[in-house]
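Let's practice the habit of predicting before peeking. Look at the sequence and jot down your guess about where helices and strands might fall. Then scroll down.
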Amino acid sequence: MGGRGGGRAVLLGASALCALAAGPAMAASADDAARDARIARLEAAVAQLQAIAERDQALQQENGELKGEVSDLQAQVADLKATTVTQLQDVRTTAEAQPKLSLNNGRPTFSTSDGKFTASLRGVAQLDAAAYSQAAPGPTSTDFRRDGPALGTSGIDAAHARQLKDGTLWRRARIGIDGTAWGDFDYRLLFDFGGSGVEDSGQLYEAWAQYSGLKPLRLRVGAFPQPIGLEDQGSTNAMLFLERPGISDIARNLAAGDTRMGAGGFAEGDHWFASAYVTGRTVGVVNTGTTITATPGAIGTAQTFGDQLGLVGRFAFTPFHGSDWRVNLGAHGSYVLRPANASGPATSGVTPVTSFQVRLRDTPELRVDGTQFIDTGSISARNASSIGGELAAQKGPFFLQGEYESLHVSRSDGVASPSFSGWYVEGSWLLTGERRAYNLQTAAFDGPAVAHPFSLKDGTWGAFEAALRYSDANLNFDAGAPGTAPGADAIRGGDQRVWSAGINWYFNSVFRVMLDVDRVSIERLSPNAAAYSTPVGAQIGQSFTAVAVRTQAAF
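Done guessing? Here is the structure:
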């Protein structure tokens, strides 16, 4: 027991000594391992930092290369953009220099980009159809209805108890061009193939040049209808009825009217208008003072020994007006300083006073038959004049207009100088609510702007207008009593009264259909029993009813 115990003690002691001896060694070994681990970590961090640095350097190198490529691309884009802008500018400049085409209310218009040069096509086609309700004709020995010149002839139709013809007529068939040149100049060239009773073979209707650089003043010279009166201002494409009132046509043809040569000008403001013209002969027709007596089938134009010389003027203003209403007042007149010299000097070399003549006449406000029932015949004249007053008013879709005309002829054959007169009043109601447009450049009312043009697809029907008119044109002077011979100064031109009712259907700005019913009453004593084949002082007038339809296309 003792030996074993002593051995254990020896072993325990030896173990303790070994442990004491190994403690410092083990501690030294642990420190080395920790140091080695730190060194390894540091080396790994350094390697990682080196790798990052290498990647950063590579990225910087790549970034530099990309920046270079981007700079190159930016330079290319800038070059491309500059080239594109230049090309676009060239294209734009080229496009702006090209003529342009537009359609305004169906009218083709060519123009330059700056608007200094324009050319518009203009066309009008008016086809009339009419039927006349008259008493049946009797023998000329008992039926004394007579007429003045018919279909452009200059004689007296005494062989018939005049019956007006039913039928059709191209009242107006016009084609032409108008526009602007150099910005300040305007022009128009228009031909007409329509007629009265029968169509013409075609003639120059308007040809004029106008300078508009002194606005509001415009100066015009050429052949054109010089403005006189309300009915002569508005376009024939927008008249209330198929024809003007008889007295308006008579007054306008004294020194103005269709195809009349003239020079002058007009000016307008927001509420006023003024015009003045010097006028001459009419174009392409036989000129016998104030009449247009083209002979069907004739070639050329009969030349006078001296053209007519006249003056025409008008002033109108709008003293009262509002947002949907307007009142227009005006006065106009004309003066024939020298009638046309129709026959020239006699064999003695002296021109007789009867060479200068004036003649007033008109059809009964419908031209399917061109018969002129009221006619003063040729009056030897030193001069002639007309003066008229005008009034028009509008309130929304309601419209009213009227004029009075007084005409005077200063005779040169020693007998009393005659005066004549006439008037009319007309009105309309646009049933669909539109209103007639007021034209500042004419101081008159044009047709309405159609709010809902005709379309079966859309269920719209255009605009409808109802119209009424009464007119009176009296070409009698000291006519005397029925059954008596005319006195030396008597002029039995006749008194024409017309009641008219109409419906106008505006499909759109181009197409229109008109229906007119006219009740015409003409009272006229026979001017010459022998020439008219009637008893002395017989009644040669008549009354009748006419129904007429016009189909119109205008642009």
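How did you do? The chain has two domains: 1-98, 129-165+208-554.
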